[in-house]
Amino acid sequence: STHFSWWNQDREGNGLRKFCESCVEGIIWAPAEGGSEQFFQMTQEMRQAHIPTVVLGLVTSAQNAFCHQVGVDMKKALRMGLEYLVENGHRHIGIAAAKSMRGTRGVLHHKRLKLALEVFAEMGLSVPDEDILDTSDNEHGGIDIAVALANRSSERWPSAIFAFDDLLSRGLAKGFNALRISVPNQISILGYDVAPDEPMGPIPLTTVC
């Protein structure tokens, strides 16, 4: 049996309760918002119904989830990316995020930014506010970020930008290419997440997979 909630928590709750009423033998659940109050309420209801559940994605308070979880340790993945940039000689590193997007994707970018800033601090690095570049469109917003950077003097450019998903990193690369800013000779770009479609793009990019 399959239920699509389209990231709506009320619809999600109704679907999960129907599974419980139908006495399914197990549930694989990609939650609309892991870690929310409603998420924990539903995990308790499924526990009371004695239905084994596996959640796709790690929840911060894993010990309270009452179910198994499969996912990526996002903070370790971000650390891997930052360590790679530092190993390649970068110290002035900017961030490209799309936390101003509406919905779940914006929430995800906001979480990545929070965790990345923690990793920066733990590694003894700082990010000036002007180098935290935000957009409301992860697919095309990278072009706007490229234009904003191009309006600065090149002495103020980061030597590398860590983009928090690959759609954003590709848009950024396209923007720099149109502005005749060489990637990686003038600015390096590191992506994240290996988004589908056009895996190489006009400029091959390194990404955290």
Order of helices and strands: HEHEEHEHEHEHEE
- Which regions have little confidence, pLDDT < 50, spanning 5+ residues? none
Q: What oligomeric assembly is this protein in?
A: single chain
What's the β-strand tally?
8
Tally of helical runs: 6
Strand order of the largest sheet: 5-4-6-7-8
Largest sheet: 5 strands, parallel
Determine the N-to-C terminus distance: 31 Å
Morphology: elongated
Helix content: 25-40%
How confident is the prediction overall: mean pLDDT? 87
Q: What is the radius of gyration computed over CA atoms, rounded to a whole number of angstroms?
A: 20 Å
* Structural class label: alpha/beta
Strand content: 5-15%
Description:
The structure is a single chain. The chain contains six helices and eight strands; from the N terminus they run αβαββαβαβαβαββ. It is α/β, with parallel strands linked by helices and 209 residues long. A five-stranded parallel beta sheet has the order 5-4-6-7-8, with helices on both faces. Strand 1 (27-29), helix 2 (37-48) and strand 2 (53-56) form a beta-alpha-beta unit. Helix 5 (141-150) packs across helix 6. The longest helix has 20 residues, at 103-122. The relative contact order is 0.11. The mean pLDDT is 87.
